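Aim 2 progress. For LL-diaminopimelate aminotransferase, the working sequence is reproduced below.
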Amino acid sequence: MIQVNENFIKLPGNYLFSSVAQKVNAFKTAHPEAALIRLGIGDVTRPLPPAAIKAMHHAVDEMASADTFHGYGPEQGYDFLIQAILAHDYQPRGIELRPTEVFVSDGAKSDTGNFGDILGTGNKVAVTDPVYPVYIDSNVMAGRAGDLKANGQWSHLTYLPCTAENHFVPSLPTEPVDMIYLCYPNNPTGTTLTKAELQKWVEYALEHKALILYDAAYEAYIHEADVPHSIYEIEGARSCAVEFRSFSKTAGFTGVRCGYTVVPEEVKAMTTSGEEVALNHLWNRRQCTKFNGTSYITQRGAEAIYTPEGQAEIKETIEYYMENARLMREGLQGAGFTLYGGVNAPYIWVKAPEGLDSWSFFDMLLHEVNVVGTPGVGFGPSGEGFLRLTAFGNREDCQEAMSRIKNWAGR
Ligand code: MLT
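Predicted structure tokens for this construct:
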């Protein structure tokens, strides 16, 4: 009989957000009358920017005529979108990238999950803790993580705790590592690194010939100065970092699917015989084999967010969510909670009341106030005792959730 990839068997039964959804659905079935407010999964609720809708309608019309029809596109993305990305996301920050260094995709989840395909399975992986579960689960699948220990850690991974005590700033690893996943603004804690803090990571990676896999999916939410928008703002990063970006949270594309990954020519890895290979070429090879490109219609929609109208529209939506975050921070603080994030990110990291662990806090909020969060421990052992709330809900829901939580806390 054929054999399975045993690494998949090692994974917990469900992906975090599926486990949460199962619990919520069971509750909903048992209590169909409950007015649930979902602030769990980081999914947007505002509609797409009108500029993107208009561009996508136009692209659909183009598909209706043989003269303007588009079949397979370039696996790396259409030049019109790549040029818009370079001109708006990088050049204004003094970052010069070659068009061939940008790979358009169906989102940062796929790219962060798939990038390991081109890296050796013997590499030592470091993750911040708590962490976006895709980085860990995809490394479990590849066989880099070892076995799950009783303390919730994987035996071969290096965990970099991010806790209130270290202000959610991870320390450099004390053991040698090859692949380092950093996500800033951070999912799930909503915290950021300063340029000086990120510089230390770039220096570490250069010195140890490690690779930083930098997930900047929440970049559009940065409001404070001195928070880097791209790792390439840091000198030397072109030689040691790849960067993942997404239109999901920036422009409401969670259901449309579009993102991109930057792989500078200078980023190299080694073969077992000591030969240096450019990751850009390997990623291109991987994408050409396993991916047929993001749809033309989607890429026209993404291009439109870089027009002046598109930019104004996404700004308005981002401000809407950040006003939610402000109201939620204020509401939770007023109710006596300790919380972090929500200033440069749409996530709020709430400390559970004394004596409650993440899942008990999650269950209590679900059952007693019908508000859904995501248990912090689901993002890693250092997330224990926390709960993540997202600011992606609609305004009325966020206000209602805060008022329910306030009443509950004062009970
Ligand atoms: C989350 O809730 O963390 C998001 O849904 C992550 C994602 O974009 O996949």
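The chain has two domains: 6-47+309-409, 53-308. This observation will guide construct design in the next reporting period.
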